[in-house]
Amino acid sequence: MGLSSRAVSYCQGCPLAIKVVGGALIGKSRDYWVSFLSDMRQIPTPEIRHVLMRSYNALGGKEIQSLFLDIACFFYGTNKSLVTKYSPAYHLLEVLIDKSLCTCVVERTRERIQVHALLRELAWSIVNDESIKLENPTRLNNLGDIQKLLTKKSLPSLQGGSTAQGIYLDLSKASEIDVEANVFEGMTSLRFLAIIYSGNKEGAPKIHVPYDAFTTLPDSLRWLQWQKFPSKSLPSSFTPKNLVALSLEYSPILKRCWDVEVCEMHFSE
């Protein structure tokens, strides 16, 4: 495959990515093209980040910016119908699609949300920058930070987790984690919780949770995915009135104490 074909393939049909990558490569030498395209997951250069940030800032409102961050951080590859149920700002999804900040791909009878790698990297850089500035993270996917939060060995910026809106924890490469009984207390803003094993799903769970911890799951949860859920039931005290998606794959759960639709969920690995 030639260099130009590789560049087009990398853009995955995303107009904004085509503009950004094309602007980065125009007038550059062949060696520069080879270097740029050799690592498709490289951190965007300042020039590329500037163009992407300009598109993000042009959204012009916290509600739609928050929707973009949720989609780019957590919902890449997810069914569009589930995203629209999850977010109160679902009506703004079409605006993001029109601005090429995400795309909708039809697969058989379903529509899946896609976000280009450059935009996903931008989203996490925005989240990390905001966490440093505000000293409180809203979205977490770093194994070390989440482990400190769940074991209450938190950094000052993670104490209590009261600002955490979303947690995405991949335990594939983690060691054993012993969770505190009151771990979810105070997480009144938590809307998204995903604990997955993107690699080998065999074997015992790597996260050990006392049953009392489940009694403090916040009612604010709208999205709950927990592979190898370490209990046979969810507590009756958990009243998921806001829950729109539930997945407990590879779990021994036998009993649900409330009625909720079990939705298929898809995450990129």
From TrEMBL:
GO terms classed as biological process: defense response
InterPro entries found in the cross-reference section: Apaf_helical (IPR042197), Disease_R_plants (IPR044974), LRR_dom_sf (IPR032675), P-loop_NTPase (IPR027417)
Organism per entry: Linum tenue
Protein's name according to its UniProt entry: Uncharacterized protein
